[in-house]
Amino acid sequence: MNMSYKKILSSILIALIFYTSAGTDIFAAELKKSRKNTVLKTGIQKNVKRKVEPKKEFTMPVIEDELVNDLNVKNTGKIVYKQRLLADETDIIQYSAKNKKHKYKNEIVQDEPILMSSENKKYKRSDYKKQVKTENGAIVVLKPVNKIKTRNKYLVLNNDNKIDKIKMSYPYIGDKVAFKVVNDVIKDGKVIIPKETIVYAKIGAVSPRAMGGAPAEMRIEGFEMYKPDGTRVSLDGEIDSSGYSLSFWIGLAELATTPFLIGFAVPVLRLLPGGQAVVTPRKNYVVYY
Amino acid sequence: MFIGRIFLILLIAFSFMPDICMADELRLDKDTCYQKILTETGFRLLNANNIPNRATFYYLSENKVKTKINVRLKRLYLYKGVFPYLEDENEYAALISIELARLLDIQTGFFRRFSISYSPRKYEIRADKRAVDLMVNAGYDPVAVITLLNKLLKEQCWYEYNIFKHNGSERMKQVYFYIYEKYPVFLADNKYIKNPYYQNFLRVTKNDRKRMRLIQENRLNTGKI
Q1: A149-158, A170-179, A209-218, B52-61: the lowest-pLDDT one
Q2: Which pLDDT tens digit goes with each residue over B122-164?
């Protein structure tokens, strides 16, 4: 039975193969015939002229200018062009020619009149000429005649019928103070400045005390004395004095009390000011001749 | 691990040495003139005032508008960004003398440093006044301090009260009052009267200057001057 099936199948396959291979040739032959276009061959016409329409030439349309009539036209035919100003432009030109409001004017404001004392009027500006100053001269030991201490003073001013109280630091800048020479000043075997001569000085700067334990500071400068013949001699030196400072101790107290509850209250100590600056007759001060 | 360690070392080096590692370019042709002006004015101020301590002045080529002082090394640094604000030699001297006055204040003593740290506003005004003295002794015009401060300093509102610094207007007023009391010649014959920055100062401080004049009148009338 198996042998019979095999024979049948093989015969069918062979027949199929034969048919298909032969069939392609048959189909190709039919295709070739159709491509030859034997059906359309009768419909084609030769030597036929096409109708081509002529191209339309473009010409720019001429627009007539209505304003040309307003212009001056000479006999020669040339047109003289005259600029025509618009209404806005004419107004602006007329306005700006008359009114120049937006020009920057450098107005200089004058300072208040400067009131000077008689001494300040004699002041001469220093002329720095790169001179080498000699080193220390003869030592002059001084003592203030009176105690000089910084403090705050209130000035009452009448400003346009308004009374103003202004806090000023005393002594004022420019105030004269007196010193006394403690010992004879000897130079080259001669007494240049005898004992008990009065030496005058000026208050140079005063810085008032402030919160945070900052002390007041004072500078005394401009030492000068008068010789017996009346000549004025200036002495070289200045005195810098400052009060006691509480800042270091406030800082220490804050550090030490930080682990404790009281540490929260200690920064209130920063409200305290320092001490006043004092120049006392108990101390000796040195300047140079 | 080795690369990580190198990276860490470089990171630390860059963080502690920004001036060396990230500095702006130094143009020798342009920057030497600024350094020269700085040192000349600085040493002129030191010599004219007979300051016994040494100090050195440096020009830093970083574009920052600030100045710096090193108290330990007694050095004064001016950054490049400040120089466009300086117009003449008086303003150069003003800036240097303000910083020099601060440096001299700190060097006064051990306890002074604590006072300055606890009340910096007081010592700021003190340094400005001392700067006026330094300039006058060296032959400069102290009114330049006012024009310089007007250009550089900020003006804060009342609710932005700074416990460390004054407003610019307050500092300028105090300088003006000091010059009025001590060196009025510079205001009577004022070379900066037409300077726009000084003119702006005059417009802003009308009432304060009037008050100063009244105080001076009071002192002259009572014979205290």
Answers
A1: A149-158
A2: 999 999 999 999 999 999 999 999 999 999 998 988 888 777 8
d(CA B148, CA B39): 19
**Contact between B79 and B64 (Cβ < 8 Å):** yes
Question: Using the 8-state DSSP alphabet, how is residue B77 labeled?
Answer: E
Number of domains in chain B: 1
Name every chain B residue with its beta carbon within 8 A of the beta carbon of A163. none
Domain presence at residue B113: yes
Q: How many other CB atoms sit within 10 Å of the CB of residue B201?
A: 25
Residue of A nearest to B111 (CA): A248
Q: Which domain holds residue B179?
A: 23-221
Helix (H, G, I), strand (E, B) or coil at B160: helix
Chain B 135-174, residues with CB within 8 Å of chain A CB atoms: 136-139
Residues of B in contact with A116 (CB under 8 A): 184-185, 188
Token representation of residue A273: 């000011």
Indicate whether A62 pLDDT > 90: no
Whether B118 sits inside 8 A of A213 (CB atoms) is yes
